Q: What sequence folds into this?
């Protein structure tokens, strides 16, 4: 860009130096030289203007941008759900009624509070009396929990909610 500007200025300087150093008479040769220099300057000016205008007038194709996709989350089938809290008005010794289950064993039906159900319902299983802990054998395998009759003797009761 500066080369064109330098060339235009030097061309103008040579033209003016030739006109100023010549004799005082005006002739057709001087007029022809002047017109040729002016035409050359006009052509150079147009070239500089076009070189500056090219990036603005041309429209570059926009790159294709894919929309953001939400991240894929891996499914964890064995993840434990977060324990649900009991209502605030339920006392410490209240156990959730939905956890009391009946299991069929070879000795008959046994009622039990399963350990996993108590944990899911925010009961502190470690605070329950270990004397009431039971393990029974069912057709589906062993079950671990707490005997309701024993827990009642320690002051635990069923929650009504």
A:
């Amino acid at each position: 860009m500066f080369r064109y500007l330098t060339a235009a200025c030097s061309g103008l300087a040579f033209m003016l130096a030739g006109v100023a150093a010549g004799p005082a008479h005006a002739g057709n040769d001087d007029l022809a030289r002047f017109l040729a220099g002016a035409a050359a300057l006009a052509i150079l000016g147009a070239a500089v203007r076009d070189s500056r205008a090219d990036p603005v007038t041309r429209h570059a194709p926009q790159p294709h941008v894919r929309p953001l996709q939400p991240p894929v989350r891996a499914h964890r089938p064995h993840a434990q759900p977060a324990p649900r809290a009991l209502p605030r008005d339920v006392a410490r010794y209240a156990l959730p009624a939905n956890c009391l289950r009946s299991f069929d064993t070879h000795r008959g039906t046994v009622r039990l509070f399963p350990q996993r159900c108590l944990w899911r319902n925010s009961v502190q299983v470690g605070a329950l009396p270990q004397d009431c802990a039971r393990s029974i054998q069912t057709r589906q395998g062993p079950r671990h929990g707490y005997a309701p009759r024993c827990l009642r003797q320690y002051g635990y009761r069923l929650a009504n909610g």
Q: What stands out?
A: The longest helix spans residues 28-57. The longest strand covers residues 108-114. The chain has a mean pLDDT of 75.
